[in-house]
Amino acid sequence: MNPRRLIIGACLLPWLAGCVNSTVDQMVFNTPGEGIGDASVVILGRRHASDYETEPDFISCVGSHISSRDESISVIGELEFLNALYPWFEPRTAPLRPADLERLLEHKDVADTFATLQTQYMIWIDGSTVRNDSAGSMTCGIGPGGAGCFGFGTWSNDANYEATIWDFSNRAEVGRISTTASGQSYMPAVVVPIPIIAPVQGTACDSIGDQLLEFLSEHY
Amino acid sequence: MSGSMTTGPERWLAATLLALLLTACGTKQVVVQSEFPPPVMNKLPLTIGVWYAEDFANHEFFDEASGRAESSWLVNTGQAQVELWDTLLKGMFREVVHMNGKPGPGQMNPVVDAVLLPAVDELQYAIPAHTNVKVYEIWMRYRLQLVTTGGAPIAEWTMPAYGKTPTAFLQSDEAAVRLAAIVALRDAGAHFASSFTRVPDVAQWLASLPRAGDPVASGVQP
Fold first, then answer.
1. Is the peptide bond before A14 cis (omega within 30 degrees of 0)?
2. Average pLDDT score over residue span A134-157
3. DSSP secondary structure of A166-201
4. Where residue A115 sits, what CATH number does that domain have?
5. Which end of chain A has the least Cβ crowding within 10 Å, N or C?
């Protein structure tokens, strides 16, 4: 194949993405202050539901989004936080209400760890991205002359997440953000399958991250 | 097939596909290995002994395939079980001592306040192919015994533990089951740490210990 065609194909590939619709709702109970200063924020996934699991990758994505937009915000990694306070934030033992934090802080070692981490906001994210409505078919074959696929596939992805923001210093819930995103992906194949993927989860991550920055950053 | 008809890469591709087909029929083996964090809690002022039976220290679960389209599963959790319970007990109790043998009459063991004997009664797993739910799950039921160094029973109770992990792009079944098992082990640690002093027979035994004024005797949750 002509190398120039390959280069052009490689350049066009990032633009071959499906469309995504996204909606964000926000409830603010307490007006956010002027950023979190030297304090830190932790983003945790809720994992109580039996039929889905908030993806660790999504939690990591939201944290990266926040810290990349405002480098002054210190985001504690989810696993780092869970390990530092084991076993009090496992699915079985995690506090369900801000008032439950008081009970945890009765343990001196737990209170000391919180003081070291300087956590001001604790953000719980609950939800998942699911695939729905798959359609189409594709056949792939291999023979002495070569290999290839032919057909067409399409599917939709739906993301639904809700972030609950706890102000650790006041032991109070200060806001809720929910986001939904949906998109249709396509995969036509004439010899080579060409995936046209709708970045549904990434869009939901960006949407929720942007809204969270309003709580956490003095620049937003 | 003559060499002139096929090129090198095609042969490799065909061999890889054949290998994939063959491995799909074999046993999927998962060896669970992980490090576990120590619990952040006030230690109970007790010297606790622990005895891991052979079955527990080398615990494995085997599920034979029910059809040709399915794979058999071998999940080995023994090493991770010992790692978890060692780390957990050291964080929960003032001192932890490994016993020389199973506590009982005539068995020479170090002197401790009580000996814990953990055992895995049952382990079940579920993968998306079984349930149509896009999570991998591991469920375990422990049988825990607390006995004196002479083997006299103090308390015996069962404790469930559960772990699940979502499907992920390019993640194999084995990697997902391994991760679910680690989550289940962490859950076991969390369950034990948060409920040990509330087990009725354990609470009664703790209250009977002659240590007036300390957190155990006064019933304060660690």
1. no
2. 91
3. EETTTTEEEEEEEEEEEEEEEEEEEEEE--BB--HH
4. 3.40.50
5. N
Mean pLDDT estimate for chain A: 87
- Is the pLDDT at B26 greater than 80, yes or no? no
- Nearest by CB to A90, from B5, B164, B190: name it: B190
Band of pLDDT at residue A36, cut at 50, 70 and 90 = low
Place of tokens 């369900």: A96
Instruction: Give pLDDT, residue A150.
Output: 93
pLDDT interval class at B222 (50, 70, 90): very low
Buried b (16+ CB within 10 A) or exposed e, B184-204: bbbbbbbbbbbebbebeebee
B134/A144 Cβ within 8 A: no
Which residues constitute the domain of residue A42? 20-129+159-178+199-216
Cα–Cα distance for residue pair B110/B107, rounded to 1 Å: 10
By the 8 A CB rule, do A26 and A194 touch? no
Distance from CA of A86 to the nearest CA of B (A): 5
A93 neighbourhood in chain B, CB within 8 Å: 190, 194
ipTM over 0.85: no
> Within 10 Å of residue B55's Cβ, how many Cβ atoms?
11
Mean pLDDT for B192-215 is 86
Structure tokens at A107: 């343990």
Residue of B nearest to A53 (CA): B166
CB B52 within 8 A of CB B99: no
Residue A92 within a domain: yes
Q: Name the residue in chain A with its Cα closest to that of B5.
A: A144
Give tens-digit pLDDT for B144-171: 999 999 999 999 999 999 999 887 766 7
Q: CB–CB of B190 and A109 under 8 A? A: no
Tell me the CATH architecture of domain B27-208. Answer: 2-Layer Sandwich (3.30)
pLDDT tens track for A51-105: 888 999 999 999 999 999 988 889 999 999 999 999 999 999 999 999 899 888 8
In a mutational test of the A interface, the residue from B2, B12, B18, B40 whose CB has the highest number of chain A CBs within 10 Å is: B40
Chain A residues in contact with B38 (beta carbon < 8 A): 86
* B220 interfaces chain A, CB cutoff of 8 Å: no
